[in-house]
Amino acid sequence: MIANTKKITDPKEKYIDSLKFSLYCISHPLDGFWDLTHEKRGTMAAANTILIATLLVRLLKLRYTSFIFLRVYWEGINIFLYLASILFPLSLWVLGNWGLTTLFDGKGRLGQVYMATCYALAPYPLIQFPLMIFSNFVTVEEAGFYSVVSALSLVYAGILVVVAMGQIHEYSAAKNILFTVATLFAMLVMIFILMIFFSMISQGVAYFISLAKEFMFRI
Question: What is the mean pLDDT of residues 103-111?
Answer without folding.
Answer: 88
